[in-house]
Protein backbone atom coordinates (compact mmCIF):
# COMPACT_ATOMS: atom_id res chain seq x y z
CA UNK A 1 0.00 0.00 0.00
CA UNK A 2 1.42 3.36 -0.94
CA UNK A 3 1.46 6.08 1.65
CA UNK A 4 -1.70 8.13 1.32
CA UNK A 5 -0.93 11.80 0.65
CA UNK A 6 -2.04 14.24 3.29
CA UNK A 7 -5.16 15.98 2.03
CA UNK A 8 -5.08 19.71 2.90
CA UNK A 9 -8.84 19.63 3.38
CA UNK A 10 -8.42 17.05 6.14
CA UNK A 11 -6.07 19.28 8.11
CA UNK A 12 -7.18 22.05 10.43
CA UNK A 13 -5.01 25.12 11.07
CA UNK A 14 -2.09 24.24 13.37
CA UNK A 15 -2.31 25.08 17.04
CA UNK A 16 0.28 24.29 19.71
CA UNK A 17 -1.06 21.84 22.28
CA UNK A 18 0.08 21.03 25.76
CA UNK A 19 1.00 17.33 26.15
CA UNK A 20 -1.47 15.22 28.07
CA UNK A 21 -0.21 12.20 29.98
CA UNK A 22 -3.28 11.18 32.01
CA UNK A 23 -6.90 10.51 31.21
CA UNK A 24 -8.12 13.07 33.74
CA UNK A 25 -6.23 15.92 32.14
CA UNK A 26 -8.00 18.52 30.05
CA UNK A 27 -7.05 19.39 26.50
CA UNK A 28 -5.88 22.93 26.03
CA UNK A 29 -5.18 24.52 22.66
CA UNK A 30 -4.01 28.09 22.32
CA UNK A 31 -3.76 30.36 19.31
CA UNK A 32 -2.20 33.71 18.54
CA UNK A 33 -5.45 35.34 17.42
CA UNK A 34 -9.16 34.91 18.04
CA UNK A 35 -10.87 32.94 15.30
CA UNK A 36 -14.19 33.95 13.82
CA UNK A 37 -16.94 31.62 14.95
CA UNK A 38 -20.67 31.77 15.27
CA UNK A 39 -21.90 32.39 18.82
CA UNK A 40 -25.41 32.16 20.17
CA UNK A 41 -25.54 35.25 22.37
CA UNK A 42 -29.05 34.61 23.61
CA UNK A 43 -28.32 31.18 25.11
CA UNK A 44 -24.75 31.96 26.12
CA UNK A 45 -23.51 28.69 24.54
CA UNK A 46 -20.57 28.76 22.12
CA UNK A 47 -21.01 27.09 18.76
CA UNK A 48 -17.59 25.80 17.80
CA UNK A 49 -16.74 25.86 14.12
CA UNK A 50 -13.99 24.09 12.22
CA UNK A 51 -11.94 27.30 11.98
CA UNK A 52 -11.95 28.25 15.64
CA UNK A 53 -12.20 24.82 17.26
CA UNK A 54 -8.49 24.35 18.04
CA UNK A 55 -7.74 28.05 18.52
CA UNK A 56 -9.62 28.04 21.81
CA UNK A 57 -8.78 26.34 25.07
CA UNK A 58 -10.96 23.27 25.07
CA UNK A 59 -11.53 20.25 27.25
CA UNK A 60 -12.44 16.81 25.92
CA UNK A 61 -14.00 14.17 28.14
CA UNK A 62 -15.93 10.91 27.93
CA UNK A 63 -18.12 11.67 30.90
CA UNK A 64 -20.72 8.92 30.95
CA UNK A 65 -21.47 5.38 29.79
CA UNK A 66 -24.97 4.10 29.11
CA UNK A 67 -26.27 0.62 28.36
CA UNK A 68 -28.56 0.59 25.31
CA UNK A 69 -30.52 -1.85 23.19
CA UNK A 70 -30.90 -1.59 19.43
CA UNK A 71 -30.86 -3.51 16.17
CA UNK A 72 -27.73 -4.34 14.22
CA UNK A 73 -27.16 -4.62 10.47
CA UNK A 74 -28.79 -8.09 10.47
CA UNK A 75 -31.92 -6.57 12.08
CA UNK A 76 -31.24 -8.56 15.24
CA UNK A 77 -31.58 -7.05 18.68
CA UNK A 78 -28.31 -6.37 20.50
CA UNK A 79 -27.20 -4.75 23.72
CA UNK A 80 -24.30 -2.32 23.61
CA UNK A 81 -22.69 0.49 25.59
CA UNK A 82 -22.74 4.09 24.38
CA UNK A 83 -20.34 6.74 25.67
CA UNK A 84 -21.05 10.45 26.05
CA UNK A 85 -18.28 12.53 24.42
CA UNK A 86 -18.30 16.14 25.61
CA UNK A 87 -16.27 19.09 24.34
CA UNK A 88 -16.11 22.22 26.48
CA UNK A 89 -14.65 25.66 25.87
CA UNK A 90 -12.75 26.97 28.91
CA UNK A 91 -12.16 30.46 27.47
CA UNK A 92 -15.27 32.17 28.82
CA UNK A 93 -15.86 35.60 30.31
CA UNK A 94 -16.36 34.31 33.85
CA UNK A 95 -13.62 31.70 33.56
CA UNK A 96 -16.09 28.80 33.64
CA UNK A 97 -16.07 26.00 31.08
CA UNK A 98 -19.03 26.02 28.68
CA UNK A 99 -20.36 22.91 26.97
CA UNK A 100 -20.09 23.31 23.19
CA UNK A 101 -20.68 19.80 21.83
CA UNK A 102 -22.12 16.64 23.34
CA UNK A 103 -22.82 13.38 21.52
CA UNK A 104 -22.98 9.63 22.08
CA UNK A 105 -20.51 7.22 20.49
CA UNK A 106 -20.30 3.43 20.41
CA UNK A 107 -17.03 1.58 20.83
CA UNK A 108 -17.20 0.55 17.16
CA UNK A 109 -17.15 4.23 16.15
CA UNK A 110 -13.94 4.72 18.12
CA UNK A 111 -12.55 1.72 16.22
CA UNK A 112 -13.59 3.32 12.94
CA UNK A 113 -11.78 6.54 13.87
CA UNK A 114 -8.60 4.66 14.72
CA UNK A 115 -8.73 2.59 11.51
CA UNK A 116 -9.03 5.82 9.54
CA UNK A 117 -5.98 7.26 11.30
CA UNK A 118 -4.01 4.08 10.56
CA UNK A 119 -4.83 4.39 6.85
CA UNK A 120 -4.10 8.09 6.40
CA UNK A 121 -1.17 8.40 8.83
CA UNK A 122 0.83 5.15 8.41
CA UNK A 123 4.04 6.84 9.62
CA UNK A 124 2.50 7.71 13.01
CA UNK A 125 2.33 5.51 16.10
CA UNK A 126 -1.45 5.80 16.44
CA UNK A 127 -2.69 5.65 20.07
CA UNK A 128 -4.39 2.33 20.89
CA UNK A 129 -7.93 1.78 22.08
CA UNK A 130 -8.64 0.18 25.46
CA UNK A 131 -9.38 -3.53 25.46
CA UNK A 132 -12.78 -4.58 24.15
CA UNK A 133 -12.89 -7.53 26.54
CA UNK A 134 -11.10 -7.87 29.85
CA UNK A 135 -7.66 -9.51 29.78
CA UNK A 136 -5.23 -10.44 32.57
CA UNK A 137 -8.02 -10.50 35.16
CA UNK A 138 -7.75 -12.00 38.63
CA UNK A 139 -10.53 -14.19 39.99
CA UNK A 140 -12.61 -11.45 41.65
CA UNK A 141 -12.86 -9.39 38.46
CA UNK A 142 -15.57 -10.10 35.91
CA UNK A 143 -14.58 -10.77 32.29
CA UNK A 144 -18.04 -9.67 31.11
CA UNK A 145 -17.77 -6.64 28.83
CA UNK A 146 -21.05 -5.32 30.30
CA UNK A 147 -19.73 -5.40 33.88
CA UNK A 148 -20.08 -1.86 35.38
CA UNK A 149 -16.49 -1.77 36.68
CA UNK A 150 -15.11 -2.87 33.31
CA UNK A 151 -17.29 -0.35 31.45
CA UNK A 152 -16.01 2.41 33.74
CA UNK A 153 -12.37 1.46 33.10
CA UNK A 154 -13.05 1.37 29.37
CA UNK A 155 -14.72 4.80 29.57
CA UNK A 156 -11.52 6.17 31.10
CA UNK A 157 -9.49 4.41 28.40
CA UNK A 158 -11.59 5.89 25.59
CA UNK A 159 -11.20 9.36 27.08
CA UNK A 160 -7.45 8.83 27.25
CA UNK A 161 -7.51 7.69 23.59
CA UNK A 162 -9.12 10.97 22.51
CA UNK A 163 -6.72 13.00 24.64
CA UNK A 164 -3.74 11.16 23.15
CA UNK A 165 -4.94 12.11 19.66
CA UNK A 166 -5.66 15.69 20.73
CA UNK A 167 -2.17 16.08 22.21
CA UNK A 168 -0.48 14.75 19.04
CA UNK A 169 0.96 17.59 16.92
CA UNK A 170 -0.35 16.08 13.64
CA UNK A 171 -3.40 13.98 14.49
CA UNK A 172 -4.98 16.81 16.49
CA UNK A 173 -5.47 18.90 13.33
CA UNK A 174 -7.26 16.21 11.36
CA UNK A 175 -10.67 17.21 10.04
CA UNK A 176 -12.23 13.79 10.64
CA UNK A 177 -11.17 13.94 14.29
CA UNK A 178 -12.89 17.32 14.58
CA UNK A 179 -16.05 15.90 13.00
CA UNK A 180 -15.89 12.88 15.30
CA UNK A 181 -16.11 15.25 18.27
CA UNK A 182 -18.80 17.53 16.85
CA UNK A 183 -21.04 15.67 14.36
CA UNK A 184 -23.59 13.21 15.75
CA UNK A 185 -24.50 11.50 12.44
CA UNK A 186 -21.24 9.86 11.50
CA UNK A 187 -21.44 6.32 10.16
CA UNK A 188 -24.04 6.80 7.42
CA UNK A 189 -22.85 10.13 6.02
CA UNK A 190 -19.37 11.07 7.14
CA UNK A 191 -17.43 7.86 6.65
CA UNK A 192 -19.02 6.98 3.30
CA UNK A 193 -18.32 10.43 1.83
CA UNK A 194 -15.14 11.63 3.55
CA UNK A 195 -13.11 8.45 3.92
CA UNK A 196 -14.32 5.99 1.33
CA UNK A 197 -14.87 2.33 2.22
CA UNK A 198 -12.38 1.07 -0.37
CA UNK A 199 -9.52 2.55 1.64
CA UNK A 200 -10.24 0.17 4.50
CA UNK A 201 -10.54 -2.88 2.28
CA UNK A 202 -7.26 -1.90 0.68
CA UNK A 203 -5.70 -1.50 4.09
CA UNK A 204 -6.96 -4.92 5.22
CA UNK A 205 -5.57 -6.51 2.06
CA UNK A 206 -2.21 -4.87 2.77
CA UNK A 207 -1.79 -7.14 5.81
CA UNK A 208 -1.39 -10.08 3.45
CA UNK A 209 1.04 -8.07 1.36
CA UNK A 210 2.93 -7.10 4.51
CA UNK A 211 3.29 -10.75 5.50
CA UNK A 212 4.70 -11.49 2.05
CA UNK A 213 7.00 -8.45 2.20
CA UNK A 214 8.39 -9.46 5.59
CA UNK A 215 9.93 -12.61 4.17
CA UNK A 216 10.95 -11.23 0.76
CA UNK A 217 12.60 -7.89 1.54
CA UNK A 218 16.27 -8.30 0.65
CA UNK A 219 17.69 -5.16 2.26
CA UNK A 220 15.62 -4.33 5.35
CA UNK A 221 16.36 -1.15 7.28
CA UNK A 222 18.28 -2.14 10.40
CA UNK A 223 16.57 0.55 12.49
CA UNK A 224 13.09 -0.72 11.72
CA UNK A 225 14.16 -4.32 12.22
CA UNK A 226 15.44 -3.42 15.68
CA UNK A 227 12.24 -1.45 16.36
CA UNK A 228 10.16 -4.49 15.43
CA UNK A 229 12.18 -6.68 17.80
CA UNK A 230 11.83 -4.02 20.49
CA UNK A 231 8.04 -3.93 20.09
CA UNK A 232 7.90 -7.73 20.40
CA UNK A 233 10.04 -7.60 23.53
CA UNK A 234 7.98 -4.75 24.99
CA UNK A 235 4.77 -6.71 24.47
CA UNK A 236 6.29 -9.86 25.97
CA UNK A 237 7.65 -8.10 29.07
CA UNK A 238 4.44 -6.20 29.80
CA UNK A 239 2.35 -9.36 29.25
CA UNK A 240 4.46 -11.28 31.79
CA UNK A 241 4.28 -8.35 34.20
CA UNK A 242 0.48 -8.22 33.96
CA UNK A 243 0.18 -12.00 34.45
CA UNK A 244 2.39 -11.87 37.54
CA UNK A 245 0.43 -8.92 38.88
CA UNK A 246 -2.85 -10.87 38.46
CA UNK A 247 -1.42 -13.84 40.39
CA UNK A 248 -0.11 -11.55 43.14
CA UNK A 249 -3.52 -9.85 43.36
CA UNK A 250 -5.19 -13.23 43.88
CA UNK A 251 -2.73 -14.14 46.63
CA UNK A 252 -2.93 -10.72 48.29
CA UNK A 253 -6.72 -10.82 48.26
CA UNK A 254 -6.61 -14.16 50.09
CA UNK A 255 -4.18 -12.85 52.72
CA UNK A 256 -6.35 -9.83 53.46
CA UNK A 257 -9.54 -11.86 53.67
CA UNK A 258 -7.87 -14.18 56.20
CA UNK A 259 -7.69 -11.15 58.48
CA UNK A 260 -11.49 -11.00 58.21
CA UNK A 261 -11.55 -14.46 59.78
CA UNK A 262 -9.28 -13.19 62.56
CA UNK A 263 -11.72 -10.34 63.18
CA UNK A 264 -14.68 -12.69 63.37
CA UNK A 265 -12.84 -15.02 65.80
CA UNK A 266 -11.79 -12.13 68.07
CA UNK A 267 -15.34 -10.70 68.06
CA UNK A 268 -16.89 -14.07 68.98
CA UNK A 269 -14.18 -14.68 71.57
CA UNK A 270 -14.86 -11.29 73.22
CA UNK A 271 -18.45 -12.34 73.89
CA UNK A 272 -17.36 -15.08 76.31
CA UNK A 273 -14.57 -13.14 78.04
CA UNK A 274 -15.24 -10.64 80.82
CA UNK A 275 -11.83 -9.08 81.49
CA UNK A 276 -10.37 -9.41 77.97
CA UNK A 277 -13.60 -8.70 76.09
CA UNK A 278 -12.93 -5.05 75.25
CA UNK A 279 -9.39 -5.71 74.01
CA UNK A 280 -10.48 -8.63 71.83
CA UNK A 281 -13.38 -6.61 70.42
CA UNK A 282 -11.05 -3.72 69.49
CA UNK A 283 -8.52 -6.09 67.90
CA UNK A 284 -11.30 -7.74 65.89
CA UNK A 285 -12.43 -4.33 64.66
CA UNK A 286 -8.90 -3.51 63.41
CA UNK A 287 -8.75 -6.86 61.59
CA UNK A 288 -12.11 -6.22 59.90
CA UNK A 289 -11.01 -2.77 58.73
CA UNK A 290 -7.77 -4.23 57.36
CA UNK A 291 -9.62 -7.03 55.52
CA UNK A 292 -12.10 -4.63 53.88
CA UNK A 293 -9.35 -2.28 52.65
CA UNK A 294 -8.13 -4.74 49.99
CA UNK A 295 -11.04 -3.94 47.66
CA UNK A 296 -10.01 -0.28 47.33
CA UNK A 297 -6.33 -1.25 47.05
CA UNK A 298 -6.90 -3.64 44.15
CA UNK A 299 -9.22 -1.14 42.47
CA UNK A 300 -6.36 1.37 42.53
CA UNK A 301 -4.03 -1.31 41.17
CA UNK A 302 -6.34 -1.82 38.20
CA UNK A 303 -5.73 1.80 37.26
CA UNK A 304 -1.99 1.16 37.01
CA UNK A 305 -2.61 -2.14 35.20
CA UNK A 306 -4.66 -0.26 32.59
CA UNK A 307 -1.75 2.14 32.06
CA UNK A 308 0.51 -0.84 31.39
CA UNK A 309 -2.08 -2.37 29.06
CA UNK A 310 -2.08 0.83 27.01
CA UNK A 311 1.60 0.33 26.21
CA UNK A 312 0.98 -3.37 25.66
CA UNK A 313 -1.32 -2.31 22.81
CA UNK A 314 1.12 0.41 21.71
CA UNK A 315 3.48 -2.43 20.76
CA UNK A 316 1.09 -3.40 17.95
CA UNK A 317 0.99 0.24 16.79
CA UNK A 318 4.79 0.18 16.52
CA UNK A 319 4.64 -3.02 14.47
CA UNK A 320 2.09 -1.38 12.14
CA UNK A 321 4.65 1.33 11.31
CA UNK A 322 7.29 -1.36 10.70
CA UNK A 323 4.94 -3.30 8.41
CA UNK A 324 4.26 -0.18 6.37
CA UNK A 325 7.99 0.42 5.97
CA UNK A 326 8.52 -3.20 4.91
CA UNK A 327 5.80 -2.81 2.28
CA UNK A 328 7.38 0.35 0.92
CA UNK A 329 10.84 -1.26 0.88
CA UNK A 330 9.42 -4.32 -0.87
CA UNK A 331 7.71 -2.17 -3.53
CA UNK A 332 10.95 -0.24 -4.00
CA UNK A 333 12.99 -3.42 -4.49
CA UNK A 334 10.41 -4.84 -6.91
CA UNK A 335 10.46 -1.59 -8.92
CA UNK A 336 14.28 -1.64 -9.04
CA UNK A 337 14.27 -5.30 -10.09
CA UNK A 338 11.71 -4.66 -12.82
CA UNK A 339 13.71 -1.67 -14.09
CA UNK A 340 16.93 -3.70 -14.21
CA UNK A 341 15.15 -6.46 -16.13
CA UNK A 342 13.80 -4.03 -18.72
CA UNK A 343 17.23 -2.42 -19.17
CA UNK A 344 18.75 -5.85 -19.75
CA UNK A 345 16.08 -6.69 -22.33
CA UNK A 346 16.66 -3.38 -24.10
CA UNK A 347 20.43 -3.94 -24.15
CA UNK A 348 20.03 -7.46 -25.56
CA UNK A 349 17.72 -6.21 -28.30
CA UNK A 350 20.10 -3.36 -29.17
CA UNK A 351 23.19 -5.60 -29.37
CA UNK A 352 21.41 -8.63 -30.81
CA UNK A 353 22.55 -10.81 -27.92
CA UNK A 354 20.30 -13.80 -27.33
CA UNK A 355 20.57 -15.97 -24.23
CA UNK A 356 20.17 -19.64 -25.10
CA UNK A 357 18.29 -20.65 -21.97
CA UNK A 358 15.64 -17.95 -22.08
CA UNK A 359 12.19 -17.47 -23.54
CA UNK A 360 13.63 -15.17 -26.20
CA UNK A 361 16.27 -17.73 -27.11
CA UNK A 362 13.70 -20.50 -27.48
CA UNK A 363 11.36 -18.41 -29.64
CA UNK A 364 14.29 -17.37 -31.85
CA UNK A 365 15.24 -21.02 -32.43
CA UNK A 366 11.63 -21.95 -33.20
CA UNK A 367 10.52 -18.99 -35.32
CA UNK A 368 13.78 -17.40 -36.43
CA UNK A 369 15.06 -13.84 -36.01
CA UNK A 370 12.47 -11.06 -35.79
CA UNK A 371 12.41 -8.27 -38.36
CA UNK A 372 14.46 -5.08 -37.70
CA UNK A 373 11.25 -3.03 -37.64
CA UNK A 374 9.82 -5.24 -34.90
CA UNK A 375 13.04 -5.01 -32.91
CA UNK A 376 13.10 -1.21 -33.19
CA UNK A 377 9.46 -1.00 -32.08
CA UNK A 378 10.16 -3.22 -29.07
CA UNK A 379 13.25 -1.17 -28.17
CA UNK A 380 11.18 2.02 -28.34
CA UNK A 381 8.49 0.53 -26.07
CA UNK A 382 11.12 -0.69 -23.62
CA UNK A 383 12.82 2.71 -23.56
CA UNK A 384 9.50 4.35 -22.70
CA UNK A 385 8.91 1.76 -19.97
CA UNK A 386 12.44 2.34 -18.65
CA UNK A 387 11.84 6.10 -18.45
CA UNK A 388 8.58 5.50 -16.60
CA UNK A 389 10.30 2.99 -14.33
CA UNK A 390 13.10 5.41 -13.50
CA UNK A 391 10.59 8.11 -12.61
CA UNK A 392 8.61 5.63 -10.53
CA UNK A 393 11.76 4.43 -8.76
CA UNK A 394 12.80 8.00 -8.05
CA UNK A 395 9.34 8.76 -6.68
CA UNK A 396 9.38 5.66 -4.47
CA UNK A 397 12.84 6.57 -3.16
CA UNK A 398 11.67 10.07 -2.23
CA UNK A 399 8.50 8.68 -0.68
CA UNK A 400 10.51 6.15 1.31
CA UNK A 401 12.96 8.74 2.61
CA UNK A 402 10.09 11.03 3.61
CA UNK A 403 8.33 8.14 5.36
CA UNK A 404 11.46 7.18 7.31
CA UNK A 405 12.05 10.80 8.32
CA UNK A 406 8.48 11.34 9.54
CA UNK A 407 8.14 7.91 11.12
CA UNK A 408 11.39 8.16 13.05
CA UNK A 409 10.49 11.61 14.35
CA UNK A 410 7.19 10.25 15.67
CA UNK A 411 8.88 7.16 17.11
CA UNK A 412 11.27 9.38 19.08
CA UNK A 413 8.26 11.36 20.33
CA UNK A 414 6.59 8.10 21.36
CA UNK A 415 9.68 6.88 23.23
CA UNK A 416 9.84 10.09 25.25
CA UNK A 417 6.14 9.79 26.06
CA UNK A 418 6.51 6.11 26.99
CA UNK A 419 9.48 6.71 29.30
CA UNK A 420 7.68 9.57 31.02
CA UNK A 421 4.37 7.76 31.46
CA UNK A 422 5.76 4.40 32.57
CA UNK A 423 8.16 6.05 34.99
CA UNK A 424 5.30 8.01 36.55
CA UNK A 425 3.04 4.93 36.69
CA UNK A 426 5.67 2.65 38.27
CA UNK A 427 6.70 5.27 40.83
CA UNK A 428 3.06 5.84 41.78
CA UNK A 429 2.55 2.07 42.04
CA UNK A 430 5.58 1.75 44.32
CA UNK A 431 4.31 4.61 46.51
CA UNK A 432 0.92 2.90 46.73
CA UNK A 433 2.55 -0.38 47.79
CA UNK A 434 4.58 1.42 50.47
CA UNK A 435 1.42 3.08 51.76
CA UNK A 436 -0.35 -0.29 51.82
CA UNK A 437 2.47 -1.86 53.84
CA UNK A 438 2.47 1.05 56.30
CA UNK A 439 -1.26 0.58 56.85
CA UNK A 440 -0.68 -3.12 57.52
CA UNK A 441 2.01 -2.29 60.08
CA UNK A 442 -0.31 0.23 61.72
CA UNK A 443 -3.15 -2.31 61.97
CA UNK A 444 -0.96 -4.89 63.68
CA UNK A 445 0.54 -2.21 65.94
CA UNK A 446 -2.96 -1.23 67.04
CA UNK A 447 -3.87 -4.88 67.58
CA UNK A 448 -0.71 -5.35 69.65
CA UNK A 449 -1.69 -2.40 71.86
CA UNK A 450 -5.14 -3.93 72.34
CA UNK A 451 -3.57 -7.20 73.43
CA UNK A 452 -1.15 -5.38 75.76
CA UNK A 453 -4.02 -3.70 77.62
CA UNK A 454 -5.76 -6.98 78.40
Automatic annotation (TrEMBL):
UniProt keywords, alphabetically: Protein transport, Transport
Residues annotated as domain PX: 61-187
Protein name (record): Sorting nexin 4
Recorded GO CC terms: cytoplasmic dynein complex; early endosome membrane; plasma membrane; presynaptic endosome; SNARE complex
Family as reported in the entry's similarity comment: Belongs to the sorting nexin family.
PROSITE patterns tied to this protein: PX (PS50195)
Gene3D superfamilies tied to this protein: Arfaptin homology (AH) domain/BAR domain, Phox-like domain
Keyword Protein transport: yes
Keyword Transport: yes
Single GO MF annotation: leptin receptor binding
SUPFAM superfamilies registered for this protein in UniProt: PX domain
PANTHER family: SORTING NEXIN-4
InterPro entries per record: AH/BAR_dom_sf, PX_dom, PX_dom_sf, PX_SNX4, SNX4, SNX4_BAR
GO BP annotations, alphabetical order: endocytic recycling; positive regulation of autophagosome assembly; positive regulation of histamine secretion by mast cell; protein transport
Organism whose genome encodes this protein: Otolemur garnettii (Small-eared galago)
SMART domains for this protein: PX
Region (Disordered): 1-47
Amino acid sequence: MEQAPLDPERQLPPAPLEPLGRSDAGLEATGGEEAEGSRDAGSGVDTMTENNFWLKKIEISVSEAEKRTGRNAMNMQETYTAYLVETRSVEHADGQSVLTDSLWRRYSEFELLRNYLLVYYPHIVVPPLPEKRAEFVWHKLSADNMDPDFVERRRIGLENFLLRIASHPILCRDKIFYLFLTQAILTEILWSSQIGPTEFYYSADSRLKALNATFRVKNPDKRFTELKHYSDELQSVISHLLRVRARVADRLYGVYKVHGNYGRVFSEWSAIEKEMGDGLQSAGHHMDVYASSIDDILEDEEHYADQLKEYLFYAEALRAVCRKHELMQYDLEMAAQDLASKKQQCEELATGTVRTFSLKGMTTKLFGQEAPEQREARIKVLEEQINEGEQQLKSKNLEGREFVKNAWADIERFKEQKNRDLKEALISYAVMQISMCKKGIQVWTNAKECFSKM
